[in-house]
Design brief:
The complex is a heterodimer of chains A (438) and B (510). Chain A has 438 residues and is α/β, with parallel strands linked by helices. Chain A has 3 domains: 169 residues; 95 residues; 118 residues, no CATH class. Helix content of chain A is 45%, strand content 19%. In chain A, α12 crosses α14 and α14 packs across α15. Chain A is elongated. Chain B has 510 residues and is an alpha/beta fold. The termini of chain B are far apart. Classes of the chains: A alpha/beta (438), B alpha/beta (510). At the A-B interface, α6, α7, β14 and α8 of A face α3 of B.
């Protein structure tokens, strides 16, 4: 049963839900949590599907918040489903138009179920510090998905700097089967482990978290290598007696090999979004293990691609100002792209195209006033000289290409050193490796 | 080079995402052709594999008097999995599992068969890496236990190698009286140490039964009233709507009391009545349960406070059904009880004066298992008698199956100008709040065996104490009269109602 309420209020929505419930004879007492999804039109339908599936296991009220900022009068439109399609739960889809788009919490607050946990999920772009977001503040558990952001590694960096107990990321959830298999592999007697590596497609957040976890728990250096994917393709632990290797080249079946012992095949299929969300709703307390893995990743991060990020971290620490990492497209990656002269002319336009969509989507996520201004500030503060020339190359071809390249080549020595260090040192430096092995 | 002997660094107790996965091992299944194996055990094993809880090395060995090859047995398992498994069938999981499936054609009494089993297990250890960890599931009539256990010893199958384990799993009935239970225990104990013997009482693997402990000991609002100051009496019911079906051979001569009260109902009673264990460990819970069993007293007049019955022809839920004596394979003069009800008291400060009524039966009104704690009426009611005419006693009911959950019954004012109080119920349904499909009891129990975690398995002391409680009743019945008949589809014989009526109480309709 679906009901459409246009230009409505939270109170009316709440009444409509009770009325619908009454009709079907059900009560809301069985529901165990409120599940808020903050997203945009692009992602809302898939996210709702996944959440609805999860609601079959954890009966909940799903509130989908779709901010649509713009001019005009503030308006709240709501769609309500109770019973049938949603199984035991109920779904409310809220479209926040005009200035209302920046006040999601005011709409959501009256709709939270009494005295039960609140989970908020940003299926794509998320605020830099989820716990400090206006909706995030209402939640006990805040679920992000770094892999589905425009700049996964930057998002990962943000997860680290903005971490609060109760945060979790679906990129971490994706590692559970791998972690389980590795733990099982080490249940058997084995030699001392010296080092490890995780192989994955480029820019895989999950691979970095997995490496971070292994490094945190095993206290040995763990690297990330790039492969063609899909996803994570393997984990290798070097022992004094040869490697223990779990490899999954096809995203379906994995093979566990060890120096002595039997080679085994293990089904290790990539999981669907709905399974990830269900796993996420199973426990609602702080995930300390995730925090540990995150901390390890951040210790290993901080060069090359993320060179800016680390600088930014310093500056942000100094100024105590938060900076959005996912929004300023282009900037962090430009030095790297510039290095390959040929790809240069293409880059800015590509990036700009992306940036265009990204500000569109990310802008809807959080109140724009909070969000965009620090971003701009940071971008300017960070690399004013660099940003300008590269932009120019996009508009004015050929002749102006040189400065950008020169700029890059000036930077090169330090980067080379960094490269070398990463190769010698066995310290996990995921972001670094990711960008050099390609 | 040093082999690491420390605890696995990747296993962190606070890492709740990682499931407990059993270590490398092989499970030997005796009695693969039985109903239980086909409908419960094999599907449970697949479900465990599908949930990623079995090690990739897992081996399953079937043992039976059939002329089967490994593939034939694998096919049998596959069929039963397809038909009965709880989780969807996935080819890749099956392929992985089936690689470890072996079959041994053999007689339970033939030493050569055990040598063959020995060879197959050794082969699995090498080729698949089960590392010498073997569990033996005896899904066979208890009469054959001595033979099998003895052969396991003589063939060396029960000998533990360095760093490996051997476990044996046995099903109820654990004997038919105290003496036979002790004898059975002696036989198994000769070969396997007590910690390696796992007695399966599938009721204890049920979520609701475990939840009973959570409700009692994780909350503050129930424990203060969980005593004779507030509780009037407790009714524990396990009713089945089915008859004995094809189990005539097993059931006749055993009866409802031995089949159900001795294990399930007494266990439920112990969990309801026991004091808070010091920790939630297997040993501590067992100590508390044993204290309850040792404090149980039977009524002096067994004739008045115990009842047995036998269902006769009748109509149940719209179908005409046969009486017990007309079931196939039942002698016309059988005195087996298909209904049993007994009254017990627990001599302790907490429970003195609170009777526990236990009843079970086949062909009753509907299938239901529940624990109902009935509270005393308020000592004084400031209302007129007519106001509270419809007010019953408060009750807290733990529904074990079906519709797992908890119901609380209390009085509430009927809307209107008059002060009229009537009973209402407040309900918690497991299925509403946690619809994550709960694993089958057998899944949980098999996994616990493979992990070696015994909190849900009764120890032999408990088995023996429950026989000690039941034996006098059984002896009384054996020498006094016949079971009273009750029409199929009703809630038992009239004598059962009288049994409560003499105490001024009545059975709750579950």
């Amino acid at each position: 049963m679906s009901q459409l309420l246009e230009n409505t209020s939270s109170a009316d929505v709440s009444n409509a839900i009770s009325a619908e419930r009454h009709k079907t004879g059900a009560t809301a007492t069985g529901m165990v949590l409120t599940f808020i999804i903050v997203t945009d039109e692009l992602h809302q339908s898939e996210a709702t599907r996944a959440a609805t599936y999860a609601a079959n296991q954890h009966p909940c009220r799903i509130i989908v918040v779709i901010p649509r900022p713009g001019r005009g009068k503030p308006q709240l439109d709501a769609e309500i489903w109770v019973g049938d399609r949603e199984g035991l739960g109920e779904t409310v889809k809220l479209r926040l138009k005009g200035p209302l788009a920046h006040h999601e919490a005011s709409v959501v607050l009256p709709l939270l179920l009494p005295d039960t946990p609140v989970v908020v999920w940003w299926p794509a772009n998320a605020p830099k510090v989820p716990a400090e977001d206006s909706v995030g503040r209402l939640a006990n558990r805040r679920v992000t998905d770094a892999a589905f952001t425009n700049r996964p590694l930057i998002a990962l960096e943000n997860r680290t700097t903005g971490y609060h107990a109760g945060d979790t990321d679906l990129a971490w959830t994706r590692t559970t089967p791998w972690r389980s298999m590795m733990a099982t592999a080490l249940d058997e007697p084995h030699e001392t482990i010296i080092s490890g590596s995780v192989a994955s497609e480029r820019n895989s957040v999950s691979a970095r978290l997995l490496a971070g976890w292994l490094q945190a728990k095993l206290r040995v250096p763990v690297k990330v290598r790039n492969t063609k994917g899909p996803g994570i393709t393997g984990v290798t632990l070097e022992t004094e007696d040869g490697p223990i290797e779990l490899s999954r080249p096809d995203g379906e079946m994995a093979t566990l090999t060890r120096s002595r012992g039997v080679t085994r095949k293990i089904p290790l299929a990539r999981r669907e979004m709905r399974d990830l969300v269900s796993e996420e709703l199973r426990r609602l307390d702080a995930d300390e293990i995730y925090a540990e893995a995150l901390a390890e990743v951040s210790a290993g991060l901080g060069r090359d691609d993320v060179v800016k990020a680390s600088k930014r971290r310093k500056s942000s620490r100094a100024s105590k100002k938060t900076v959005s990492g996912y929004a300023p497209m282009g900037t962090p990656s430009q030095p790297r792209r510039a290095r390959k002269g040929s790809s240069l002319p293409m880059t800015p336009s590509e990036e700009e195209a992306k940036a265009g969509t990204s500000t569109g989507t990310s802008g809807t996520n959080t109140s724009a006033s909070e969000r965009t201004s620090p971003v701009k500030k940071a971008a300017v503060k960070r690399a004013p000289t660099k940003k300008v020339p590269t932009k120019k190359t996009a508009t004015k071809p050929a002749g102006k290409k040189a400065p950008a390249v020169r700029k890059a080549s000036v930077k090169r020595p330090t980067r080379k050193r960094a490269t070398k260090k990463a190769q010698d040192a066995s310290v996990a430096n995921p972001a670094k490796d990711a960008d050099n092995t390609n | 080079m040093t082999v690491v002997n420390e605890p696995n660094p990747l296993r962190d107790p606070s890492d709740r995402r990682l499931p407990r996965v059993a270590g490398p091992c092989a499970l030997v299944l005796f009695g693969v052709t039985g109903d239980l194996a086909r409908k419960k055990l094999m599907p449970a094993i697949y479900d465990l594999a599908n949930r990623g809880l079995l090690p990739p090395t897992f081996g399953l060995v079937g043992f039976a008097r059939r002329d089967w090859e490994d593939q034939d047995f694998a096919q049998i398992v596959k069929d039963s999995v397809r038909e009965h498994a709880r989780t969807p069938f996935r080819e890749e999981v099956w392929d992985q599992l089936s690689e470890g499936i072996r079959f041994v054609t053999g007689e339970l009494t033939d030493p050569d068969s055990y040598n063959e089993l020995c060879r197959v297990l050794g082969d699995l250890d090498r080729s698949r890496g089960t590392n010498g960890n073997h569990a033996f599931y005896l899904s066979i009539p208890p009469g054959l236990f001595p033979v099998v256990v003895d052969h396991l010893r003589t063939s060396g199958l029960s000998d533990t190698q360095e760093g490996a384990w051997r476990r044996v799993i046995i099903e109820k009935p654990f004997g038919h009286d105290l003496e036979s239970a002790q004898e059975l225990n002696r036989i198994v104990n000769e070969v396997f140490p007590p910690g390696s013997i796992f007695r399966i009482d599938h009721y204890l693997g049920k979520e609701t039964v475990q939840n009973l402990l959570a409700v009692r000991f994780a909350n503050t609002m129930f424990e203060p009233i969980w005593n004779n100051k507030y509780v009037d009496h407790v009714q524990i019911t396990m009713a089945e709507d089915i008859g004995i079906g094809s189990r005539a051979g097993y059931y006749d001569g055993i009866g409802a009391a031995r089949d159900v009260i001795q294990n399930h109902l007494l266990q439920l009673m112990a969990l309801t009545a026991m004091e808070e264990p010091v920790t939630f460990s297997a040993d501590q819970i067992r100590i508390e349960k044993e204290k309850v069993f040792s404090a149980v007293v039977l009524p002096e007049d067994l004739g008045a406070h115990t009842v047995r019955g036998q269902y006769s022809d009748g109509w149940q839920g719209g179908h005409q059904v046969k009486g017990y004596l007309h079931e196939d394979g039942i002698p016309k003069d059988s005195k087996t009880d298909t209904y049993a009800a007994i009254k017990l008291e627990i001599d302790s400060r907490r429970w003195a004066g609170v009777p526990f009524y236990l009843r079970t039966g086949k062909r009753l009104g509907r299938r239901v298992t529940e624990i109902a704690v009935i509270f005393k009426r308020a000592p004084h009611l400031p209302f007129s008698v007519t106001d509270t005419a419809e007010l019953g006693a408060n009750a807290l009911v733990i529904r074990v199956q079906p519709d797992e959950g908890i119901t609380i019954k209390f009085g509430s004012k009927v809307p209107g100008t008059q002060m009229e109080v009537r009973d209402v119920t407040m309900d918690f349904a497991y299925g509403d709040s946690f619809t994550e499909s709960s694993p089958e009891a057998y899944e949980r129990l098999i996994l616990d065996v493979l992990l070696g975690e015994p909190p849900l398995f009764p120890r032999h002391v408990e088995v023996e104490s429950s026989w000690q409680i039941l034996d006098p009743v059984l002896n009384h019945w054996a020498t006094h009269g016949n079971p009273e008949s009750y029409p199929a589809g009703t809630w038992g014989p009239a004598a059962a109602d009288e049994m409560l009526a003499i105490d001024g109480r009545s059975w709750r309709r579950p």
